[in-house]
Design goal:
BRCT domain-containing protein, Rossmann fold, 32 helices, BRCT_dom, 36% helix, four-stranded parallel beta sheet, 24 strands, BRCT_dom_sf, CellCycle_DNARepair_Reg
Length: 857
């Protein structure tokens, strides 16, 4: 589209979706749409509560908030989401403004700040400009209408006089404001820092600090609201579309709400146009209390919104969508505490109103204890500023004194954060940090890793992931055999996936060796019934009688090959002779105590003296098992290997040894290399089975000089490289892959992610369905970017086929649009790096148009 005089219009290449909300009303959206149309744009307006159509059709989305359902999809598709100001600024500049500076993302908390600097030292000036720009703001060298903040030490500087003379709406602030904001990672009120009479320089330390209401905590201070919100909100009265219209909602049984309240909730949802379901596969929203159970894991893996009653009530109250991950207490809680929080006694100081209620509930949700009074038995004091009697007492008693960010970050990352981090011990002089409580979102990547790891992958075990469920002998005996077996399978699956227990009781912890055996499936036996407490105590007492024998047993077990292989001979002089009856009695006592401590599933097998697991072996390309009709042979061989102390595993994460006939490019082989296993030839397996003993794997190293020469690396160095990389060789790499690549997209995705990178399919646009990208902090990104220039590049795995080459221009254009260097490479680039565990330049593997048709795949 062009104007009458032939000049192109600014937005003529833009298709823009305007997302209405309570802060972006329909009237204003219509004005924006008119402006965009006059300048060549193609605007579309989405009313509050309505779904955003396919985001791939748009070049930009305009919104004042990230609280709409299509935001994550737009972010994954690299489609910029901007505030309405972006339109006016672009028109004033006569070019499209940088969308990052106008993002509504709260993590870019300086995104509506345009700063200019007055008479301040150059070092401070550079630090402030860098921090503001990194957090989404802009720097202006001169005072103008765009400037929002002037950083100065006095109100009498040249730039300050210009601001006063022109009566510009510019706040003149001390550099301390930026310093405090950047240290906290939050934007605090600038009023105490505003010249000419800043409060931080004028008021004494004992003067009470004024507190302002925190709007972020409205309806988000508890996980268990006491009553249903009013049935009709202003949004409904005005006739706007309900956000529940067309939605299917499932209320989980673990909510434990009465029938009257449940009927009331269903009536409100039905009034808003929602349908109820008891099948999670049909649901658009799941409302539950705990992070556990089949429905929770299924909904989470399907990217269905999972929230608690507090989140549902907020949607009812405001009729505006907000992600349940946006606020910590809008998401279901865990029955198990954050690792390291057990035993913490935490007291609060200087937090008032909703902020105090919010932190009390967050402490309870983290697994710690919140105390109203501060005593010497407390471990932590969380305070909103550093001046109070509690703060003085806590410092005298040597307690940890931190702000609420320590608690929020620990809950969001599900990991105890070091209290020594300066961010958690920083208290601005005249600011009550309760004003910025509740701004920390949950990290979906952490939730997935800990509470609902993807099926088919063995994610790192979460806290208490190896715990076994308490057995109820009466219930178990009453169940049919099929039901008992199904329940045991579910219990083992829950343990492998880190699902916390449904009851609040502590559970005994299995040893790692036991958990490894149970996770294999084939060795899983029905647990024996639990003995009475009295018999357990008697068994423990009897166990002392056999202490010398057990000591000798443990000593022999540590010998190479274990007790069975490599043990003492009958002819040894110092060999202890044990009669069969005493030996059988001792083993019976051991099994009884072991069942009490571990609640193990293979007591009978242990009685048969099966050797302990000496290695976890991943096998690929073993010819004796290849082909139809060899399944029985494979099973028999695996049982034989297990009798020798070798556990055959399928997951590369668990392998300590890797066996292959040669350097083959199977997914198993390539992925396993990243975990630094001992690499052996499959001759090791054959020899162990033929000789019936566990041989030394060092005698069977994998040798393949021809492949080493072909792929240009030394196999003997791969393990050392992998140990150094720690699965982070591709950290910072964003790699796209054509969907129909030979070998399959899933195989290359697993290789990239195993080595710490990010892999997504490319369908002619930078988008991906149901993809959750792990967001790192800006500090981590900048640190990695300095070390890793690959962050400035986008990679596409492709072949030189005609079909794949058609999407190359589109990929290059989209990469350049987001200021990345496009690199279209052959899959050998990824495979060579993964197999050598060394990063390589993409230049040698880059595909160009003159290679089209020369497809060697």
């Amino acid at each position: 589209m062009a104007s009458e005089n032939g000049e192109s219009k600014l937005f003529e290449q833009c298709s823009i979706c305007i997302v209405c909300s309570k802060d972006l009303l329909s009237d204003y959206a219509e004005q924006l749409a008119t402006t965009l149309e006059q300048n060549g744009g193609e605007p579309s307006i989405v009313q509050p509560g309505a779904e955003v159509p396919d985001v791939a059709k748009f070049s930009h989305l305009i919104s004042t908030t990230i609280d709409f359902e299509a935001y994550d999809t737009a972010s994954d598709a690299l489609i910029p989401v901007v505030k309405p100001q972006w339109v006016n600024i672009s028109l004033s500049k006569r070019k499209l403004a940088n969308p990052r500076q106008y993002s509504p993302d709260p993590r870019l908390f300086m995104n509506d700040v345009v700063v200019t600097c007055g008479d301040i030292p150059e070092g401070d000036k550079d630090a402030i400009i860098g921090g503001v720009v990194a957090k989404g703001g802009l720097y202006a060298p001169r005072v103008s209408q765009m400037v929002t903040h002037l950083v100065d030490l006095t109100a009498d500087s040249d730039k300050a006089r210009i601001v006063k003379a022109k009566r510009l709406n510019v706040k003149i602030v001390l550099p301390h404001w930026f310093d405090d904001c950047l240290k906290l990672g939050r934007r605090i009120d600038e009023r105490p820092y505003t010249l000419p009479d800043p409060e931080i320089l004028r008021v004494g330390p004992d003067t009470p600090i004024q507190w302002h209401e925190n709007k972020d905590l409205v309806g988000a201070s508890t996980t268990d609201p006491s009553r249903l919100p009013p049935p009709s909100s202003p949004a409904h009265v005005s006739g706007h579309r309900s956000i529940f219209e067309g939605k299917t909602i499932m209320l989980s049984p673990d909510l434990e709400i009465g029938p009257h309240l449940q009927e009331s909730i269903q009536a409100v949802l039905a009034q808003g146009g929602a349908k109820m379901t008891a099948n999670v596969d049909d649901a658009d929203m799941l409302i539950c209390r705990y992070r556990e159970g089949f429905a929770y894991r299924t909904a989470s893996r399907l990217n269905i919104d999972v929230g608690n009653l507090a989140w549902l009530y907020r949607l009812m109250t405001f009729n505006t969508y907000t992600s349940p991950l946006r606020r910590l207490l809008h998401y279901p809680v865990s029955r198990t505490p954050i690792p390291g929080f057990e035993g913490f006694k935490i007291s609060l100081s200087n937090y008032v109103g909703e902020a105090r209620i919010y932190l009390e509930n967050l402490i309870a949700a983290s697994g710690a204890e919140c105390t109203k009074t501060l005593k010497q038995e407390n471990t932590h004091l969380i305070t909103a500023h550093g001046t109070s009697e509690k703060c003085s007492a806590a410092k005298e008693w040597g307690l940890e004194v931190v702000n609420h960010l320590w608690l929020e970050d620990g809950y969001a990352k599900w990991k105890l954060q070091p209290a020594s981090n300066p961010r958690y011990s920083h208290f601005p002089l005249r600011t009550n940090l309760g004003e910025v409580a509740g701004q920390t979102p949950l990290d979906r990547a952490v939730l997935e890793q800990v509470f609902f790891p993807s099926t088919g992958t063995a994610a790192p075990s979460p806290p208490r992931a190896m715990q076994s469920k308490p057995q109820n002998t009466n219930t178990a005996s009453a169940q049919p055999p099929a039901e008992k077996k199904r329940k045991i399978d579910e219990d083992v699956s829950d343990a492998a996936h880190g699902t916390p227990q449904a009851n609040g009781k502590r559970r005994p912890v299995q040893t790692p060796a036991r958990a490894c055996v149970m996770s294999e499936g084939k060795e899983n036996e029905t647990p024996s019934s639990t003995s009475s407490r009295k018999s357990k105590e008697a068994a423990t007492a009897r166990l002392h009688e056999y202490a010398p024998d057990l000591a000798l047993y443990e000593k022999e077990r540590k010998r190479v090959g274990g007790v069975i292989y490599g043990g003492r001979r009958k002819s040894d002089e110092d060999r202890v002779q044990e009669n069969k009856k005493e030996n059988k009695k001792r083993l019976s006592v051991e099994a009884e105590v072991e069942s009490d401590v571990e609640q193990a599933a293979e007591t009978k097998r242990q009685k048969k003296s099966r050797p302990p697991i000496a290695m976890h072996l991943l096998i690929t390309g073993y010819q004796r098992w290849v082909g139809k009709g060899n399944e029985k042979k494979e099973d028999a061989d695996k049982r034989g290997l297990r009798d020798l102390g070798i556990m055959v595993v399928q997951d590369a994460r668990r392998c300590t040894h890797l066996a292959a006939p040669s350097m083959i490019r199977t997914t198993k082989f390539v992925n396993a290399l990243a975990y630094a296993p001992v690499i052996v030839s499959t001759d090791f397996i054959t020899s162990c089975l033929e000789k019936g003993e566990l041989l030394d794997p060092a005698d069977f190293p994998l040798k393949d000089k021809e492949a080493e020469k072909k792929y240009n690396f030394d196999l003997s160095c791969v393990t050392a490289n992998a140990k150094k990389n720690k699965n982070q060789m591709l950290r910072g790499y964003r790699i796209y892959c054509v969907e129909d690549i030979r070998g399959g997209f899933d195989a290359f995705k697993s290789i990239v992610e195993t080595n710490g990178g990010e892999c997504m399919p490319f369908r002619g646009r930078l988008t991906i369905a149901n993809h959750s990208r792990r967001e790192e902090s800006d500090e981590e990104e900048s640190e990695v970017e300095d070390e890793n220039p690959a962050r400035k590049e986008l990679f596409l795995l492709s072949s030189a086929g005609v079909k794949h080459s058609r999407i190359w221009p589109r990929f290059r254009q989209l990469a350049l649009d987001i200021k990345k260097t496009p690199r279209i490479v052959h899959v050998d680039w990824l495979l060579d790096m993964a197999m050598s565990q060394e990063t390589r330049s993409a230049n040698k593997y880059e595909l160009t148009e003159d290679m089209i048709g020369n497809n060697n795949e």
